[in-house]
Amino acid sequence: MSMIFDEKFNLKYPYFGESNPLKWNEGVQDYVGASGEGLAPSGEQEGVKDFKNPHPVYEFLWTIGDILTALIGAGFTIDQYKEYPYANGTKIFDDMQEKEGRKMHPPKGTPSLPLMYSVVVTK
Question: How does pLDDT run across 75-92, given as a tens digit for each residue?
Fold first, then answer.
């Protein structure tokens, strides 16, 4: 769900991407390094300074319905689907607040939306 927002948690991109990818010329960024101990609980190590990714990245805006329908179409049975109002360890938006268990929540005053989900399937 986070792909429809910019880093300031402002609605920016369509939820229904219609299979049209978003292109980022700067490539995949170091969200692990930017998240600090949230994604490196055993300790951080300094990485490459001022790294510039020369390869563009394409991101597809698949809806939850697209994903669940693809799983069903592949012959899976959906046993459980759950949504979470936080992201594990990574600060995907500016001003996120870390709470117990390295769970990153949106800033106060932000609407409550799922930032992560889980699906349990069987074949």
Answer: 999 999 999 999 988 877
